[in-house]
Amino acid sequence: MNLDVQSLRTFSRLAHSGAEEAAGSLTTLTGFDARVAVTKVEMATRADVEREFRERDLVSVHIGFSGAIEGHTVLAFDRERAVSLVDALVPGASDNPESDLATSGLKELGNIMLGGFIDGWADFLGDSIDITTPTYVELDAGRSLQDVVGPEEIPGEPAGADGADASSATIDADHVLAFRNHLETIDEEAGFYIYMLPTQESVETIVDVAGNAEDAIPVETFTSFSQMISEGAGQASEDLTAMTGIDTNVDVSRLSFVPVEGVPMELTDDARRGVVLEFSGTPSGYIAILFDPESAESVADALMPGMESNPAMRKSALQEIGNIVTSGFLDGWANALETTIEISPPRYVDDIASAIVDPLVTELARTQDYAFLIDSAIATPDETFTCDIYALPDERELRAAFDQLAPEAN
After folding, report:
1. Cα(210)–Cα(222) distance, rounded to whole angstroms?
2. Which end of the chain has the smaller Cβ count within 10 Å, N or C?
3. 380 and 266 Cβ atoms separated by less than 8 Å
4. Degrees (nearest 5) of the Cα angle 231, 232, 236?
5. In angstroms, what CA-CA distances link 370 with 88, 94, 365?
């Protein structure tokens, strides 16, 4: 199966349009004024998706769809937000959030919102898409992605009891292609997410309608690049451990496709300290290595103990750490692509994360409307510190890298 940038743009527009329909339904049903904050096409590992569900206290509604395309949709809420929304729909439901009345209200909300979301895809394809009865699911630490989307959506898993084919929502056994929308109410920060997990055959159907065969990239190339990202994050983690003496792990590492203007919205508005660097070669782009203030202090102490009273030295320590982490992250890319990637001197930054990345996005926006966002996070088991890595490659240079990773090029 091949994917191309035009198909990804179409995926993004359709998912955004469907999410706007869902937000409109939410506003009509509950009176909460909702909007679509971010829409992204995401290539992630199953483990990353599972971790995201586990780490949030989420409740969700799941609906399968079939017809022109097949797959599964998930509408996920944080628990408190779910209670307030259902109470607006079914007054008194919040008195007992575990009651049948409350769960029925949430299922009805999911049915209407996800139905509107899927309708946009049916209109685009000019064919009907049927949806299943909504299922209410609480996501907790014991659940896996198989529990979230059902065994029939996971390739490599046994077929269901009815003998249904086990082909599906993933591109391969480890990676998931998801269309994720973050919706939020205007007056509150609490948001909720719509995931669409189409089958591989359904992705091919959409590509056939929307794509450009001449510009298509084998999906194996995306998975190879995702693996390269994960390995780069692993090397960065090892280098960070060697520098600070503190054991670290890669928490998440994924590739997503998002409108350029939506990139800052993917980042927190909390304060961050770190460095920004530019890299050039194949590919070229920008990278930000960011720590929350407490983490920045922890890594500076580990690298330069006893320098608490010397801000300049602590800033220098963060620059050095950022430089080493960036080198570890990108060296693996250079090796895999058999190329050279040059890195600029690190520039120290201290601001909210979205503001740090905004000027980088402005530069990219001069030549492209969409961006491939690489999002990795490194953390210590005891939460001594976390390090977020955001890379924004130039789309044209990244395409050259994809060409080098394509199966026929090896």
Report:
1. 18
2. C
3. no
4. 115
5. 37, 41, 8
Q: From start to end of 100-248, where are the E strands?
A: 129-131, 135-139, 175-185, 191-198, 217-218
Half-sphere exposure at residue 24, Cβ-oriented, CA atoms within 13 angstroms:
9
> What is the number of residues in the chain?
410
Nearest Cα neighbor of 36 from 106, 116, 91, 103 is: 116
Return the CA Rg of the chain: 22
Q: Where is 348: in which H helix or E strand?
A: strand 347-352
Residue 71: Cβ-neighbour burial (10 angstroms; 0-12, 13-18, 19+): buried
Rounded to an integer, what distance in angstroms lies between the CA atom of residue 112 and that of residue 219?
33
Roughly how many angstroms between the first and final C-alpha of the chain, as a whole number?
Answer: 18
E-state strands within 244-329? 249-259, 271-280, 285-291
- Count Cβ atoms within 10 A of the Cβ of residue 189 and give its class: 0-12 exposed, 13-18 middle, 19 or more buried: exposed
What pLDDT digit, counting tens, does each position of 120-179 carry?
888 888 899 999 999 887 655 455 555 555 544 433 333 333 333 323 344 455 566 677
Query: pTM (2 decimals)?
Result: 0.78
Torsions phi, psi for 372 (to 5 deg): -90, 115
